[in-house]
Amino acid sequence: MPTASDFESRRRERRRRERLRKKRIRAVIILIALIGIIAVICLAISTCSKPGENTPPSDNTITETSAPETISPTVAPVFENSLNIPSPTEENNLLQIIADSGQKKRCYLTFDDGPTQNITPQILDTLRRYNAKATFFQVGSLIDSNPDMARRVYEEGHLIANHSYGHNYEKLYASTDAFITEIEQCETSIKNVMNGEEPFKLMRFPGGSYNAGDHAAIKQDCKEALKEHGFYYIDWNSLNGDAEGKSKNAEELLEYLKQTSAGYNNLIVLMHDASSKQATADALGPIIEYLSSQGYTFHRLDDIDYQNASLSSSTPQSSTSPSSSSNVETESPTNSTPSTAPTTNTEGNSANESDSSSNTSSTSTAAPTPAQSATQKPSTSSTGAIIIQ
Ligand SMILES: [Zn+2]
To answer: What is the pTM (predicted TM-score) of this model?
Structure first.
């Protein structure tokens, strides 16, 4: 028989178990609550740290979305083709390299003697309107005095090339050492506006590289010095005549360009970015439209398609002569007397590119003056480059 004390002990045991059960339930409830709180905190932290719509846009986002449509890419394009051309230590006459390249119907618009505050922006606006790329042979001292303009040329995807530091013939061609010093000075000026990027080592001789006129002999030595320093050089094979004879209006410049460019496969067009060349800026749109209608595309001088060079250079030259109107230039043929005396250009230098120069290369693409065209017999090479005979 269970006694009263047995009942009492059982009742106590039930109460103990009941308290224990309630404690466990409370512990479970507290644990669940803690887990819930921790989960909420974690969720809040992860939401706050996630970049996105709740955070202000970064500077890059602002730049991308707010940039005006008319602004061109700020990084100059890099052309793989430039890596395929011969090294300047082998061949540094870029005009010859283009003639040998095998490429077709390319036009290289070139603008010498800038940058300037008044003409450079007009040229750039026109190039941008037609989505055409060009090469600017700039003078180092003018880059230093107009860095904003030089930088804009670079940022809008054009090529800046070397046109000496001072463009003073007497100083520049005093010796090969003086020449190389100026080329290196100009190179430094170019690099300064290219954010330290290494420029394409290309220069154009003020007055042209031809072996005639003043400084003819030293220029030939300078070509070798350029080769040793890893520089290409280039002249031109067509021009708008903006530094020839009396000043021309835009219509006359277009006509001059039509005459000097006829019959060429690849064009290297000489024009000037000097402060007095308003007509050059005015004529550029019509010139681009005309050349486009003739099938040309516009490229920088470091964009040369050299893939078919061996095929091209092995092809016999054609005896086809361009039309008589194409043989217009002021470059003189080998061993001839320059047709025009050096003149003073708008920047006070002793001559412009198209004066007082002649060509020693048998494969030059330079064309003669209208006066010379009667006596010279230019023909086109397989690439369309005119050969002065
Ligand atoms: Zn010049």
So the answer is: 0.65
Provide the pLDDT confidence category of residue 39 given band limits of 50, 70 and 90: low
Residue 188 C-alpha from the chain's centroid: 17
C-alpha 113 – ligand 1 centre gap (Å): 5
Instruction: Show the tokens assigned to 45.
Output: 């932290």
Which residues is 159 bridged to in the sheet? 135
- Annotated active-site residue 299? The verdict is no
Residue 73 exposed, middle or buried by CB count within 10 Å (0-12, 13-18, 19+): exposed
Lowest-confidence pick of 34-43, 104-113, 183-192, 273-282:
34-43
Which one of 272, 273, 299, 305 is the catalytic residue?
272
C-alpha 207 – ligand 1 centre gap (Å): 6
Asked whether the beta carbons of 148 and 138 are under 8 A apart, the reply is no
Is 242 among the catalytic positions?
no
Distance 223 CA to ligand 1 centre (A): 17
Residue 152 CA to ligand 1 center (angstroms) comes to 20
Name the least confident of 13-22, 63-72, 228-237.
63-72
State the DSSP string of 36-75.
Answer: HHHHHHHHHHHHHHS-STTSPPPHHHHHHHHS-TTPPPSS
CATH superfamily of domain region 81-387: Glycoside hydrolase/deacetylase (3.20.20.370)
